[in-house]
Write a structure and sequence with these properties.
By secondary structure, the chain is of the alpha/beta class. It has two domains: about 1-165, Ribosomal Protein S5, domain 2; about 185-505, 3-Layer(aba) Sandwich (Rossmann fold). Helices cover about 35% and strands about 15% of the residues. The longest helix is centred in the C-terminal third of the chain and has 18 residues, at about 410-425. The protein is elongated.
């Protein structure tokens, strides 16, 4: 007898339907075909043990399991549950009437319990797309899948529960999640707030500008000046995620297996801070079965690279294309996948190897030329993609102990949202939504300056020795500053403030 169950394979951030066909014939061997990897092949032992431990019989006949389409590689242990149910149905131990109405996924333990699997959200979306009645999966994944409406999400703890559900002896209510309530209730909850930051007003201002225009930032300052603390608070002033952005972000984290048990929709902007020992593949994504990297996990959020010069040069260079195109394309011999990577890059670094170059109190002990060599670890093309260079100085004792009320993240965020709304209106026909995304041709149209502004910019570039690559960046940042001020024109003061955020472009900054 032939029985069919349905599962899904996940490639990139999308799922594709897989038909699990099981045929029990006369003979005595177990065959699995359809390009299964080792984890799928080993399901025979897990399935047999689970079936026997629940008091059912593993057929002592020839069993053929076909995973169709047969030319697509199947990976992972999530096919255990559909294979087990298929075997029981094909051997007439379980009623097969309703099996074909559900997508079924889950990893079995030897005693028949179910373990959580990855990529549940894209699988649920695919199940709804093909108009399946429901989705049977481990209970720990049920809240995640229930984000998708018009689909009965049935969470089960064991293979026995799944059998009883299909036999009609156990009624399991579908898991229901009020996506909008969760989304709007938690999107403003952040662990860190700018109200706790004493001093550093100039850095707060720079991060507000960065958030308002979607600009990348690098902070240069000595150890203990507060660079990491400030970067952690940046997501709290970014505009709230839209529901569509939240779904995109949750899909990526689902595929990567980064959603915890019982997790639902990600409603806050992600913040990823990989260690400087990270590899190229871990940062941008890849592997035999391509998985999203840190830059995709930071999609719609913030990627923080602490101690930027300590990262391997090759790791930093692979970020150049994603920073420009806001996506990552990974090609293999048989598959090509694309992961979204629209993130804000926030980097920090010491000004020199010892960390105290230009320190107001401590003396730098680096030998001549060491500062420039340290800065040269970061390539010009990468710096070209960073709009704001901010020098961070240590907070004085008086500032740390001052009894004053600091502006909260909520107050700053309101100004950022207002500036973003202006940009959304400005670029609604261009397919972009922030000043940082403007191409060079659009900069000339949108960032027009008067003759006095041109004179100031020319003088600044000549006297400060600013490089040519700084020109567009200054104009984009000045446009954002004007948006924060609700000004239609870019004024002299907006340009002047933008010019000061190009520290690393200045000739002689590192003593050269």
């Amino acid at each position: 007898m032939i029985a069919k169950t349905y599962g899904c394979s996940v490639t990139g951030v999308d799922a594709a339907l897989v038909t699990v066909e099981v045929n029990v014939l006369s003979g005595n061997k177990f065959f699995m075909v359809g390009l299964p990897d080792n984890a799928v092949k080993e399901s025979q032992q897990r399935v047999e043990s689970a079936i026997k431990n629940l008091g059912f019989k593993m057929p002592r006949k020839k069993i053929v399991v076909n995973l169709a389409p047969a030319d697509v590689r199947k990976e992972g242990a999530a096919y255990d549950l559909p294979i087990a149910l298929g075997i029981l149905a094909a051997s007439s131990q379980v009623a097969a009437d309703t099996l074909e109405s559900y997508v079924i996924m889950g990893e079995l333990s030897l005693d028949g319990k179910l373990r959580p699997v990855k990529g549940v959200l894209p699988i649920a979306i695919e199940a709804r797309k093909h108009k399946y009645k429901g989705f049977i999966l481990p209970k720990e994944n049920a809240s995640e899948a229930a984000i998708v409406n018009n689909l009965d999400v049935i969470g089960v703890d064991t293979l026995e529960e799944a059998i009883q559900f299909f036999e009609g002896t156990l009624n399991i209510e579908p898991t229901v999640v009020d996506t909008r309530e969760i989304f709007f209730h938690t999107q403003n909850e952040y662990d860190a707030d700018f109200s706790a930051v004493q001093g550093q007003e100039n850095i707060k201002r720079a991060l507000e500008i960065a958030a308002a225009g979607g600009h990348n930032v690098i902070m240069i300052g000595p150890p203990g000046a507060g660079k990491t603390m400030l970067a952690k608070r940046l997501p709290s002033i970014l505009p709230p995620l839209s529901l569509q952005e939240a779904l995109e972000t949750t899909k990526i984290h689902s595929v990567a297996g980064r959603l915890g048990a019982g997790a639902t929709l990600i409603s806050r902007r992600p913040y990823q801070a990989p260690h400087h020992t990270i590899s190229d593949v871990a940062l941008v994504g890849g592997g035999g079965n391509p998985q999203p990297g840190e830059i995709s996990l930071a999609h719609n959020g913030v990627l923080f690279l602490d101690e930027l010069p300590e990262f391997k040069r090759t790791v930093l260079e692979v970020m150049r294309q994603p920073l420009e195109e806001r996506r990552v394309s990974i090609s293999r011999a048989k598959v090509s996948v694309e992961f979204p990577a629209n993130f804000m890059l926030i980097a920090s670094m010491n000004p020199c190897p010892c960390g105290y170059y230009n320190h107001p109190e401590k003396e730098c002990v680096c030998p001549p030329g060491a500062v420039q060599r340290y800065l040269n670890k970061i390539s010009g093309p990468l710096l070209d993609r960073i709009d704001l260079h901010v020098e961070v100085t240590p907070v004085s004792f008086d500032q740390m102990t001052a009894d004053r009320k600091n502006e909260s993240s909520t107050e700053i965020r309101e100004r950022v949202i207002q500036a973003r709304e202006l940009q959304t209106s400005r670029f609604k026909e261009a397919g972009i939504y922030s000043n940082a995304m403007m191409p060079s041709q659009m900069v000339k149209e949108v960032c027009k300056i008067n003759s006095a502004g041109k004179t100031l910019l020319k003088t600044a570039m000549e006297r400060l020795g600013l490089s040519a690559r700084a020109y567009d960046r200054i104009l984009k940042v000045s446009r954002t500053i004007a948006d924060l001020a609700e000004s239609e024109e870019i004024k002299i003061e907006h340009l002047a403030e933008a010019i000061q955020y190009r520290s690393l472009d200045r000739e002689g900054w590192a003593g050269s």
